[in-house]
Every structure is written in structure tokens, then in C-alpha cells.
Amino acid sequence: MNLKLKIWRQEGPNDQGRMVDYQANNVSDDMSFLEMLDVLNEELIEKGDDPIAFDHDCREGICGMCSLFINGEAHGPVKGVTTCQLHMRSFKDGETIFIEPWRAKAFPVVKDLAVNRSAFDRIIQAGGYVSVNTSGNTLDANAIAIPKPDADKAFDAATCIGCGACVATCKNASATLFLSAKVSQLALLPQGQVERKERVTKMLHQMDEEGFGACTNTGACFVQCPKGISLENIARLNSEFRNALLS
Amino acid sequence: MALTGLFLCTFLVGHLAGNLQLLISDPTHAAESFNAYAQFMTTNPLVKVLSYVTYFSILFHAIDGIMLVMANRAARPQRYAHEKASTSSVWASRNMGILGTAMLAFIIIHMSDFWFEMHFEMKPTFKLDNGDEVKDLYLEVVEAFHSFPYMLLYVLCMIPIGFHLYHGFQSAFRTLGLVHENLTLLVKRVGVIFSIVVPMAFAIIPLYVYHFIPSAEEIQKSESYKAKSTLIEVEND
Question: What distance in Å separates residue A240's CA from the closest CA in chain B?
Fold first, then answer.
């Protein structure tokens, strides 16, 4: 198939940036979206042009490195997948495809489609950890009994890969779904109880510091999340914060 | 936003319950009932406290809402060239600021019409069964809703309120940290019903008065009303 691409090009953080038109010909249905961009980049390199910068790593949907706002949606039109798992069969011959970087004040563009997501790392550093005894007598984690429903919910929250689709799709560029998953996965487990109260306060404070917006419960984050992180986590985050405030 | 929002939801229920007295078909009975209610609402000290809490809630909710919209807009300085927002969220949830502004405009019009006139303007009076002579707010309402554009404005203004409640009601519960799957579903359903029933019930009142209650002039001419009302000529339009 042949496609018209409208891709955001920006030389560096201080460049203004603009949408540039490209033509992708003879694209196979079986290509992943990133492979399509790889082929386009090969052509650009052959012509002596600057290839398009975009983030990617594992290309099997588990690392959270790929991004891209494709045709108005985070990770493209297919729900529950990352861009690397999106295939060209999801598009029609002759279609025009818009490709833009995540847009948020807290995710500044590094180059073209690559954005800096270090703000997420700093939120984790603020409180997304547990204290573990490392003096040689470490407890076996399986020795602590955890109710199955709690373990399941904690695991579901822990499937967040930190890709930032929630921020990209939220009209407020809020990182609340990400934060709520990171708070929930620890708040639900016995190992997370020691820092429970200060964790939520510190991480929320860091989210605000980074310039993310506030949650207005539109629910768009959950719809676009490639891992289907539940909105129940946001309710839990708010309840954790309320408890931390009142105690 | 959640606390003041939910408080204002309870206010809406109270306000609606009081206003449903306007649906009484006999004007003299309706006037007795509604004016007695108005007297209670303006003189009871507990209601007075509650009314100040309501004014505060409206102001706080509006100012906090404006600040929230501004801060959230600042979080995305560069917009997308192409965005399909409707695939992942409902329209009302993305436009609470606009809906809220429409509601605030309505509240200002509404307060200047009835609240201001009730408190500061001279109007015909009505003698209640308890002997007190009070300003005839019932007649005021009937007169207002007999103007077609006015009646239409009140009915149409219930639409943004419905959409605002549609998102706001259930959103408030999540903000307050309600964590339980079954309860979340219940809140959602109650929210949908609330956002449809309350604005519709409010909208019925001006429609009913316009179509089924005689005009203020005719009411004042009736014998049973004359006995209670001070005979002030209603101005002809």
C-alpha cells in the first residue's frame, strides 16, 4: 500500500518544529508501524536527508519506550497495544497518517518524535520504592502471605510500562493514571506499608513540580493505555492521599 | 471541586423540591404554599446559614474551576495538529469549564431576576394563612414565565446543567477516592439518572407555568386571590 505521512520534524529542543509531508510507497501489511518508519528512514539516509528520530527499544510491547501520537490517538487506532505492536494492516491504502510526538510541558521534545520522559523517573524516585533489608538475611518474598485479590490488583497496576500514553492523551496532560498505578502496586502489598503515607504525598508533589496537569476524570487515559490500567487505581490514589492528609 | 460540587448537587435537590410547589394547579393554593415556603427560606436562621454555605460553594467551585482549567491548559503549551479526543472520552467531560461558565451566567441571570427582586424590590404582597403579609414571589414567578423568550431561556439553560452533572456527579466520587467496583457502577448509574431527572424536573416548571397557569393579571382578578393580595395593578406589557 501507499501512504501519505505528515510527520512532526523538530531539529532540537529549541527549534520551532513543523509538520512535513512524506510519501511511503509499497508498504507491506505485515510491517509494524516502526518498521514502516525504519524503511522511510533508510530512504531518507540514502538521499542524504536527516532520518526521523523516534523512541523504540524492545519492539515486543513490554518496555514502554515507543510512543507516537498517530492519527490523533496515542499508539494509534488499535486499543491495548503499543506502537511497535501496531501493524500496517490497520491502515488503508492511500490513507494520510499524522505522526506527532507526545505533547506535554513535562515531556519536552528532544528531536522530531522523541520526547524526554525523565519526569516519570523523577516521580518514581520521589517515592515509588520500598525499603528492603539487604544485610544478608533478606526475607523470601513468598514467605509473606498476600490475599489473592490484592496480589492480582497489585500485579495489574504493575503492568504499567510507563510509556506516557496517558499523559499524551489526557486533555490536561496529567500523569495521574501513571502515578496511581505506581502508588497502587505498592499500597496493596505488605511490603509497601512502611512508606505508604509519605509515598503518595511525595509522588503527587513531584508530579505537580514536573508541570503535569491535574486529573478531571475524563477517563481518556484508561481507554488509550496499552496495558489497560484501570481507573480504579485513580480512585485508590485519591483515597491514599486523603488518608495521608487526615492522619 | 468534588466537595463543593456534591454539596451543590444536594442544593439542587432541595431547590427542586421547593420549586415543585409551583406545579400546584390552583393559583391561590400555590401562592399560599410557595410564599409560605419563601418566607421560611428567608427567615429561618438555619436556612440562612445554609444559604451562605451555598453562595460560598458556588463561588469556590467557579474560581477553583477557572484556576484548574488554566493550569491544565498550561500543561500542554503545544497542541496536537490532529487529535481524535472523542474516541476516548465523552464530550461533557472535556468541556466542564464551558458548561460551568454557561451555568454561572445562568445563575447570575437567575439571581438578579428572583433573588434580587425578592430581597430588594417592592412588589405586590400576599397575606399568608398565618396572618403575615409577604412579598408575592409566586406572582413574580408566574409573570416571568409567561414571557415566551424567558421561559425558553430557563428551559434551554437546563441542558448545560444536565451535561455538567452527567460528568461531575460520578467524577466527584472518584476524586473523593471511592474504591469499590460495585459501588463505582452504582455511582455511575445514579449519576446518569440524576443528570437527566433533575434538570428535566426543573425545566417542567417554566413549561407548566407558561402553558397551564393563568397570567399574573388574571390571577389577581380572581375573587379568591383578591382576598389575599394587595391590589397593585400589574403593568401591562
Answer: 8
